[in-house]
Amino acid sequence: LPRGSDPQLHAWIRKINASAASAADGRKVRYLDIFPRYLDSAGQLNKEAFTPDQLHLSLKGYQLWATAIEPKVKELMAE
Question: Using alpha carbons only, what angle is made at residue 16 by residues 65 and 34, rounded to the nearest 5 degrees?
Fold first, then answer.
């Protein structure tokens, strides 16, 4: 997830996420990019999704997470 407001930090997190995504085989290891859901239309951290420390999720942040993963969880449960 993104954190803080430093664009360089966001770029570094995206690089790590890309590395994690490359490990996904689609069978046993899956990757779901939910990073963009935590940014506003200007590409800045959605402050409503985080607590004031810009690291920990707020209730809205957890709701965004749940909404993002729910379809995949349902799919996996059906398997």
Answer: 20
